[in-house]
Amino acid sequence: MPGQDDMSGTELRRQLAETARELGARGLNRGASGNSSVRCAGGFLITPSGVAAHLVTPESLVFVTMDGKAQGELKPSSEWRMHRDIYAARADAGAVIHTHSDNATALACLERPIPPFHYMVAMAGGSLIDCAPYARFGTAELSEAMLKGLGSRRATLLAHHGMICYDQDLPAALALAEEVEGLARQYLLACSAGRPKSLSDAQMAAVLKAFATYGQPQEA
């Protein structure tokens, strides 16, 4: 996994605990809602179940193998299946973030996707951010619905629940989570003033092509 193999377990734990606290500080999660993880050798590290973000420490993180076995004194997040299934299905996934952020969750409760009303929707890897069907938290059914909602993209809303996204590492996943929440807020604001128009498939395809070479080149 790019950017992961050369990192020590100690550094990954530090980064994940910091990310969990940052999600709370930025208002993307509150209390013990939501969860985050990072891929590592043999499985992934994930935030513990029922622990508020500001109380998450490197030592409280839980290692889970790819066959779902948790190691340590604390229980992993009840949503560990969604994280495991993303890592199993997406070789490019280095980190996963699940939030209950207000605006993304509001749209999810309406069972509405985020359409291509703004070109930045393409940041999630497609021409829209879909909304996966409802299933109870912590279930295999939710994980299956989530994968359908993702399709070939890196983010999806979860009906009556929240949002989940992944990217190559924790900083990128955090940036995407914040971008999706911002887009959800902008879409709701636009809807309050009228019916937002969508960009065409051709226009979004051009944006996706441009994003492929956007930003600074990655270090080898």
Short synopsis of the structure:
This protein is of the alpha+beta class and 220 residues long.
Which runs of at least 5 residues are low in confidence (pLDDT < 50)?
1-6
Radius of gyration (Å): 17 Å
Proportion in helices: 25-40%
| Number of domain units | 1
Structure description:
By secondary structure, the protein is an alpha+beta fold. The protein has one domain (9-211): Class II aldolase/adducin N-terminal domain (L-fuculose-1-phosphate Aldolase), CATH 3.40.225.10. The chain is built from six helices and eight strands. It has helices at residues 9-25, 80-89, 102-109, 140-150, 170-193, 201-211; strands spanning 35-40, 43-46, 62-65, 70-71, 95-99, 131-132, 155-158, 162-167. Strands 4-3-2-1-5-8-7-6 form an eight-stranded mixed beta sheet, with helices on both faces. β7 (155-158) and β8 form a beta hairpin. α2 (80-89) packs across α4 (140-150) and α3 (102-109) crosses α5 (170-193). The longest helix is centred in the last third of the chain and has 24 residues, at 170-193. The chain is globular, with a radius of gyration of 17 Å. The model is unreliable at 1-6 (pLDDT under 50).
